[in-house]
Batch of 2 targets.
Target 1
Amino acid sequence: MKRLVTTFLVSAGLLAGCAPVERTPAAGAGALGDRLSTMDEVVRWIRGTAGECADVTSRGPADLTGFFGHDIAARYAPFVTEWITCAVSPEFPKVGVLLFSGDSQRKFQESWRAAMANGEVADGPSLAFGNGFAVSSGSLGTSELGLYYFRCDYHDPRVRQVPSDVSGCVFAHPEHGHH
């Protein structure tokens, strides 16, 4: 019996040692944390992190223009699966929360990079990004939610940076790494 127990424990240990180890990617949106793939997940996460996301209101594609302006809304619209607004605090009474599905977040990054290269936009979007979503108020996103700005041709050694899904661009977190 002792031999059977020992054999079982050794076998279990070997099997556990062979189990794949899940690693957080070092680059791309996957490096920004767990992927949130539904709006309910994002709202719960914001509430758990910032303390509130009240008055959740589902918005349609046409509402993007009223919220972001025509030019910027046109850049987001092809890539946003769903979006809402909610109140996070008196300082942030109406925050837009955008959800990306599949590889639409990567496609958004590619599109923004191309627009910068063509001179159509001069800087990165003011959104703060997580894995699968973005919030409209970058300062809320970086200071209270721990999210990242998307920047291209960006070089600031004092700011924590994660390579994005697009060559020449990074996710930058200015709240971390200042000397």
Target 2
Amino acid sequence: MEKEVEEVIDKIHKLRIEKNISILNLSLESGISRSHLFYIESKKTIPSLETLTKIAHAMGLKLKDLFN
């Protein structure tokens, strides 16, 4: 996995914890399964831009916020 992808995944995890959002709640808000979110945060799968967009919006962010 490329460093840039790992950085985005790390940022998702960090922001989710900071916002006190559980994997279950993020799953419900984003429409992405809990298992898929778990695999993303475990760096076992690479999320698509569509998935990243859903995650960002579910956390009240814009997609670009995951890349800053």
